[in-house]
Design brief:
Layout (H helix, E strand, L loop, with lengths): L4 H14 L12 H20 L1 H8 L2 H27 L5 H10 L1 H34 L7 H13 L2 H5 L8 H23 L2 H29 L30 H8 L1 H6 L5 H4 L7 H30 L3 H5 L5 H9 L2 H35 L6 H4 L10 H17 L2 H26 L16 H19 L7 H23 L10 H24 L1
Helix pairs in contact: 2-10, 2-14, 2-17, 3-4, 3-11, 4-14, 4-20, 4-21, 5-6, 5-20, 6-9, 6-17, 6-19, 6-20, 6-22, 9-17, 9-19, 10-14, 10-17, 17-19, 20-21
């Protein structure tokens, strides 16, 4: 570590001490690495591709030409308000901490559970989608017929191992479900292993992922434009009712309302530009966090919005026949590039996309584990004493990392992919709205000390727009075929409320508040000294 960096880290540590916490994890991340975490989680080559049919099969090309930039502005508003709060409170598990400080310990406790539920379910969806992407991309090249692969993908979207065990599913899909669980377990636990081995290794991988995302997305965009047979840009503003298609496996139920279909098309960018809270969750490992974290949040959303839009525009332009593309349903991306690109380039792009999707899940393990660690540090979770522990060797929240992975695999066993995707995004956006709502009422009243990244007079108007936009996304997100979410999300909320008033309201104190006492400061220094000594001792032994 250079001498120039030390004063900056010392200021970060002093800020953390002032909030009542010890510097237990290593502060190694640069501003770029913090940005790369969120860029990897958003990963336009994951959600933008695996959910492409969600937009295309609503109103056609207009869902990409118009819905994507509209939702991008909404995501930027969320990112901007999140960035200002992150600048003022640069802690791990950011959203939980912000809600607790600005809205009270109960509000923060609820935010933590919604955020954690969203991260775990979205991570499960990402890793399932990674396996399904590999299946769709490479199984036909191993000799399996496109019809067989398409059937497998359809089964994996709507079935789970739990369905088969209780006898409510189709026994014929059992083998491919077992294969999915096997590969998702390998993917998830390998991601946990990388995270377990320290933030230095994790950031090297996510930094690499950030570059690969940009290189592959730009390369694919240029290739699609180059090999496209026609350049009909009017498609991007042309509305056509594709509801009820493809027949037998409709993406959206049949409706005559173009306005409603346009709203459903917004779910494509909503499913993609999400997870940028990852930068906030790694605040305690970032140098110059009060400035670098908010910058990283904004940059990750802006870059993803622009590059993602250009990529999806290229996909729409490259489509040989719009009706034939819609008939492919969830298989539409593979169909487009098979129809457009040479085989060698096709395979190269698919390999690059697979790497970025794996790194997306890797970064999500980092994000979710920091939420578990931060929440447990304040006694918010069961077995908090275990889950808040930090490895002296690698200075990572080891128990939190492996719990994140175990929960992801459990969801893969119990819940179908389509259900996980539907509820995960809703949980995450609710966890974004909750601290925004609390900050709106606290701004200028109980919250007067802003960080160095400050929106000024723009904060409140943007916060209000986020709250209404978030409510709209929840309404759109629970529509058929995702209507099961209308039961899961309120049910989860009811369980949280009952658990809070029955048990946790009496023993959960929330984050430290007020001036840190001399006794608490001494405890903080003792904790840091013990970790430093254990780390030095283990390094000496090795």
């Amino acid at each position: 570590m250079s001498q120039g960096q030390r004063p900056e880290i010392d200021r970060d540590v002093q800020t953390l001490h002032a909030m009542g916490y010890a510097q237990e994890m290593q502060r190694r991340m640069s501003g770029f690495s913090n940005y790369a975490i969120s860029l990897s989680i958003i990963c336009i080559l994951a959600g933008g591709i695996t959910s492409f049919h969600v937009g295309l099969c609503s109103v056609g090309g207009a869902s990409i030409g118009l819905c994507w930039p509209l939702m991008s502005f909404v995501a930027l508003a969320f990112a901007a308000t999140m960035a200002q709060v992150a600048s003022a409170f640069p802690t791990a598990g950011g959203l939980y901490h912000w809600s607790s400080i600005l809205g009270g310990r109960g509000w923060g406790w609820g935010t933590a559970w919604f955020n954690l539920a969203g991260l775990i379910t979205v991570m499960a969806a990402v890793n399932q989608a990674t396996f399904q992407f590999m299946l769709g991309a490479f199984a036909p090249r191993l000799g399996y017929s496109p019809e067989t692969v398409s059937h497998w993908l359809g089964c994996l979207s709507n079935a789970s191992v739990a369905d088969e065990l209780i006898g409510s599913g189709d026994p014929a899909v059992w083998p491919i479900l077992v294969v999915q669980v096997f590969f998702v377990s390998i993917i998830t636990f390998s991601q946990a292993l990388f995270n377990d081995r320290g933030i230095r290794l994790t950031t090297r991988l996510t930094d690499f992922s950030g570059y690969v995302i940009l290189v592959v997305s730009v390369s694919l965009t240029l290739a699609l434009f180059f090999f496209a047979k026609d350049y009909d840009f009017s498609r991007l503003v042309t509305f056509k009712n594709y509801s009820g298609l493809p027949e037998g496996a409709a993406v959206w139920p049949k409706t005559e309302s173009m306005a409603w279909l346009f709203a459903l098309g917004i779910l494509l960018p909503a499913y993609t530009i999400i997870g940028f809270d990852g930068s906030a969750h790694t605040s305690e490992e970032t140098k110059g966090a009060s400035l670098e974290v908010p910058r990283a949040i904004i940059r990750a959303v802006a870059v993803s919005a622009v590059f993602g839009w250009l990529l999806l525009i290229a996909l729409v332009i490259a489509i040989p026949d719009m009706d034939a593309a819609v008939a492919q349903g969830a298989n539409v991306f593979f169909w487009i590039i098979d129809q457009t690109l040479p085989n060698w380039l096709n395979v190269a792009m698919l390999l690059g996309i697979t790497i970025t999707q794996y790194c997306c899940g890797l970064a999500m393990v980092t994000s979710a584990s920091r939420v578990i660690y931060a929440f447990s540090r304040d006694g918010g979770m069961p077995f908090s004493n275990v889950l808040r522990s930090v490895s002296p060797t690698y200075r990572t929240p080891r128990a939190a990392v492996w719990l994140s992975a175990a929960l992801v695999v459990s969801f893969t066993l119990l819940v179908p992919y389509i259900t996980i995707t539907a509820v995960g995004v809703i949980f995450l956006y609710l966890s974004y709205v909750m601290p925004t709502l609390a900050s709106l009422f606290a701004h200028g009243r109980t919250w007067t000390n802003m960080g160095p990244w400050n929106l000024g007079l723009w904060y409140k108007p943007l916060a209000v727009s986020c709250i209404f936009s978030g409510a709209g996304l929840v309404i759109i997100g629970v529509q058929p075929p995702n209507h099961i979410a209308i039961w899961i999300v309120p049910g989860f909320a009811v369980l949280l409320i009952a658990y809070w008033y029955a048990i946790k309201s009496r023993d959960f104190a929330g984050p430290p508040s007020g001036t840190v006492s001399e006794e608490r400061h001494a405890e903080i220094l003792a904790t840091e000294r013990a970790l430093d000594e254990a780390h030095a001792s283990r390094n000496a032994d090795s």
